[in-house]
Design a protein that fits this description.
The complex is a heterodimer of chains A (339) and B (290). Chain A has helices spanning 41-49, 91-101, 106-119, 135-147, 165-182, 193-199, 217-222, 227-232, 331-338; strands spanning 3-12, 15-25, 30-34, 56-61, 64-65, 76-79, 153-157, 185-190, 202-207, 210-215, 239-243, 246-250, 255-258, 266-275, 279-286, 289-296, 306-311, 317-319. Chain A has 339 residues and is an alpha+beta fold. A six-stranded mixed beta sheet of chain A has the order 6-7-8-3-9-10, with helices on both faces. With 290 residues, chain B is mostly helical. Chain B is 75% helix and 0% strand. Chain B has helices at residues 2-46, 49-52, 67-75, 78-109, 116-126, 136-145, 152-177, 180-188, 193-204, 206-222, 225-230, 239-244, 254-274, 276-284. The longest helix of chain B has 45 residues, at 2-46. Chain B is globular. Classes of the chains: A alpha+beta (339), B mainly alpha (290).
C-alpha cells in the first residue's frame, strides 16, 4: 500500500506541531519516523491513523484522499507504545477483537488467532489476562492483534520503548524479520536512532514538526542534510568544531588517535577513555573543543596524556554555523580563492 | 537484614492487639450509632401496640406479631406504593445512567468548541446548586399543564433530571481516568465509537457505573418532597409518602409505618450487597492509578 503526505500541517491551538510535511511511502517499505520528543512524529502517525484531524494538506492512501475517512474504515493496524491491550479480555479475545468487530465466524476467528499466536510463540498465553503477562509478552500480543487481520499497513508508535535493553534488541530483530515475511508497508515512530538505522528501508528525520531528511539509513548516516541530522544519527554523536564561518563535523570513527606526533596531526589531550569491550571511546580536549574518537579495544592512554589526532579529511562535513545546513564540500577553498 | 525483620515483626506483635482493640471499639460505637434507629424500627414493627408504648420498653424480649405487616400490605395499599417506588426508582435510574453516561463520555472525550466541555459541565452541575424545593412549585405547575400530576411518569421524569448531573459528573471522572489508548486501539481495530464504548470502555468502568447506580437508586427510592408535591392519590404514591401519610391528625400508626419502612430497606440492601464487590472499587476509582 502506498501512502502519501501532501503538505500536511497540524496545529494545536496556535502551536504548529507538524509543518508542511510531504512524504511518499512506496508499497512494502519500512519507514521510520525519527526525531526527538516533540518533533511531531507521533502526531504524524496519529493523523495517518485518523486519530488526529489534519489542519491542512492531504493524506493519500493508494491514491485515495483519506482526510475525512474515520479511523475504523482506514484498515490500518496500530501498535501503541503502551500496547493498549484490553485489560478485561483474555489474550485470545484481545487478538481476536479486530476479527470480532468484522463479524468473522467464530471457528475462523479461533483458527486465525491460533495461527498468529503460533507465529509469535504466544500460544501458551492465550487464556491469560494482559496483567499476568510480562512486558515482552504484552508486546507480542499487541503485535499479534495488529497482524491477525492482515491490514493494509502497520503503524507502530515506539513499540519497543517499554522493554529492557536486551529484549529491545531481540524484538527489533524479530520485527524486521516479521516485516520481511509479511511484506506489508510499515510506518514506525521512534526516537532511538539505532532502531531507525537497523529497521528502516528509509528514515524520515523530523525536528520541530519539519522534515529534515528522508533517505536510506546509510545515506542519512554518510550524507546528513544538516547539522541536526548529523548530530542525531550515530552513537557516539558526530563531533563539531567551530572554525570561523564554518562548522566542521567529523564522526568519531574518522578520528584516529596516535600516541606519537605525526605531520599534520592535531595535538590533543585525553580527557577520559571508556572501554566498551570491542572498542574504546576516547574523549579528547583540544583548545576549547571536546571530541570523541573511536579507538581499538586495546588502546590505552592515561588521563591528560598528550595524543595526536589524524582526521580523515575526505570524511569531513561542513555546516553553516547559523542555519546548520550542509555546505558544498569545497566551500572554504572557493572563498579563499575569491579573496 | 534478617535480624531487622525479626525486630520489626516483634514490635508489630506488641502493637497489634492494642490497635485491633481500638479498631473494635470505634467500629462498635459506629455500628451502634448507625444501627440503633434501624433496630428500634424493626422491633416496633413486630411489637403489639401495647408493647410499643410500655415503659421501660422491652428492648429485646417481646411477643412478636405480624399484624402491622398484614395491616400495611393487605388491609392498606402499601403493596401498591412499594410497586410504584420500585418502578419509579428503577426506571429513573436506568434512564439517568443511559443518558448521563453518554453525555459524560462526550464531555470527557470530544473536544467541543468555545470551551464548551468545561462550561457545559459546570452548567449541568449548577442545576444542583439550589435547594430542590425551589423547583417544587414550578414543577407542580408544569406537570399540571401537561396532565401528568398523580402519575408515575411525572416522578420518573423528575428523578431522572435530578440524578443526571450526578451521573454526568461521576462518569465523566471515570472516563477521564481511562487511558485513551484503549479506545483508540479499538477504533484502529475497526470498531465504531459506540462499539468501543460498549465493548471496551463500559466494561472497564463497571465499578464506577455500579457505584453511580446504587447512589441514583437510593436517591430515587428515598425521595419524599417531589413525590409529596406531585402525587396525592394511591395511583402514583411512593412508599415514603405513603408511610408519612400514616401520621394523621388523630393518630400515628407507628406499627404500620415501621413495618412498611422495614420492607422499604430490603430492596436497597439487596441491591447494594449484590454490587458490593464493585462499590468500594467504584468509590475509590481514580484515587489510585492502577
Amino acid at each position: 500500500m502506498s501512502i502519501e503526505f501532501r503538505n500536511v500541517t497540524k496545529t494545536f491551538g496556535g502551536a504548529c506541531v507538524v509543518d508542511d510535511l510531504s512524504l511518499e511511502v512506496r508499497d512494502g517499505e519500512f519507514i521510520v519516523l525519527l526525531g526527538p520528543s516533540g518533533c511531531g512524529k507521533t502526531t504524524t502517525l496519529r493523523m495517518l491513523a485518523g486519530l488526529e484531524t489534519i489542519t491542512s494538506g492531504d493524506i493519500i492512501i493508494n491514491g485515495e484522499r483519506v482526510n475525512d475517512v474515520p479511523t475504523q474504515h482506514r484498515d490500518l493496524a496500530m501498535v501503541f507504545q503502551s500496547y493498549a491491550l484490553y485489560p478485561h479480555m483474555t489474550i485470545a479475545e484481545n487478538i481476536g477483537y479486530p476479527l470480532r468487530v468484522r463479524k468473522l465466524e467464530k471457528a475462523d476467528r479461533t483458527a486465525r488467532v491460533q495461527r498468529v499466536a503460533a507465529m509469535l510463540e504466544i500460544e501458551s498465553l492465550l487464556e491469560r489476562k494482559p496483567r499476568q503477562l510480562s512486558g515482552g509478552e504484552r508486546q507480542r500480543v499487541a503485535l499479534a492483534r495488529a497482524i491477525v487481520r492482515e491490514p493494509r499497513a502497520y503503524l507502530m508508535d515506539e513499540p519497543l520503548s517499554n522493554l529492557d535493553a536486551r529484549l529491545r534488541v531481540q524484538m527489533r530483530g524479530e520485527l524486521k524479520r516479521l516485516q520481511h515475511q509479511l511484506g506489508t508497508t510499515t510506518i514506525y515512530v521512534t526516537h532511538d536512532q539505532a532502531e531507525a538505522m537497523t529497521l528502516a528501508s528509509r528514515v524520515a528525520v523530523m525536528k520541530k514538526g519539519r522534515l529534515q531528511q528522508f533517505d536510506t539509513p546509510l545515506n542519512i548516516y554518510n550524507h546528513p542534510a544538516n547539522r541536526f541530522v548529523a548530530e542525531f544519527v550515530g552513537s557516539p554523536s558526530m563531533n563539531f568544531i567551530e572554525k570561523g564561518d564554518v562548522t566542521i563535523g567529523i564522526r568519531p570513527e574518522h578520528i584516529q588517535v596516535l600516541t606519537t606526533p605525526e605531520d599534520g596531526a592535531l595535538e590533543a589531550r585525553v580527557y577520559v577513555t571508556e572501554l566498551m569491550g570491542n572498542e574504546t571511546f576516547v574523549f579528547l580536549s583540544t583548545g576549547d573543543n571536546r571530541l570523541i574518537a573511536r579507538a581499538p579495544a586495546d588502546f590505552r592512554a592515561d588521563v591528560d596524556t598528550k595524543v595526536w589526532l589524524r582526521i580523515a579529511t575526505d570524511k569531513i562535513h561542513r555546516f553553516d554555523p547559523v542555519t546548520g545546513e550542509l555546505l558544498p564540500q569545497r566551500r572554504s577553498g572557493a572563498t579563499e580563492s575569491a579573496k | 537484614m534478617l535480624s531487622t525483620q525479626k525486630v520489626q515483626k516483634s514490635q508489630k506483635r506488641v502493637y497489634v492487639p492494642l490497635v485491633s482493640f481500638v479498631h473494635f471499639v470505634v467500629l462498635l460505637a459506629t455500628l451502634v450509632f448507625a444501627l440503633a434507629p434501624v433496630y428500634w424500627m424493626l422491633t416496633i414493627s413486630f411489637k403489639t401496640e401495647g408493647e410499643q408504648f410500655a415503659s421501660p420498653p422491652p428492648w429485646f424480649i417481646f411477643t412478636p406479631t405480624l399484624e402491622h405487616y398484614y395491616d400495611a400490605f393487605v388491609t392498606r395499599s402499601f403493596g401498591r406504593y412499594l410497586l410504584t417506588s420500585a418502578i419509579v426508582a428503577v426506571t429513573s435510574t436506568i434512564l439517568a445512567l443511559v443518558i448521563g453516561t453518554l453525555a459524560a463520555y462526550a464531555l470527557a472525550r470530544f473536544e467541543l468548541p468555545l470551551k464548551l466541555n468545561r462550561r457545559l459541565s459546570l452548567w449541568i452541575l449548577s442545576t444542583r446548586m439550589f435547594p430542590a424545593i425551589v423547583t417544587a412549585v414550578p414543577l407542580f405547575l408544569m406537570m399540571r399543564d401537561v396532565r401528568l400530576l398523580n402519575t408515575r411518569a411525572a416522578l420518573i421524569i423528575v428523578y431522572t433530571a435530578f440524578n443526571l448531573p450526578f451521573v454526568v459528573w461521576m462518569m465523566r471522572g471515570f472516563f477521564a481516568d481511562l487511558p485513551r489508548d484503549l479506545e483508540e486501539a479499538a477504533l484502529v481495530d475497526g470498531d465504531s465509537r459506540l462499539g468501543a464504548l460498549v465493548r471496551i470502555v463500559l466494561p472497564l468502568v463497571t465499578p464506577g457505573l455500579a457505584a453511580t447506580a446504587v447512589f441514583c437508586l437510593i436517591v430515587s427510592w428515598n425521595e419524599f418532597l417531589f413525590a409529596l408535591v406531585l402525587t396525592q392519590t394511591d395511583a402514583a404514591m411512593t412508599l415514603p409518602v405513603g408511610i408519612a401519610g400514616r401520621v394523621t391528625q388523630y393518630e400515628i400508626k407507628w406499627g404500620v409505618m415501621s413495618a412498611a419502612a422495614s420492607v422499604a430497606i430490603v430492596p436497597i440492601l439487596v441491591f447494594a450487597l449484590a454490587l458490593q464487590r464493585y462499590l468500594v472499587r467504584g468509590l475509590s476509582m481514580g484515587a489510585v492509578k492502577g
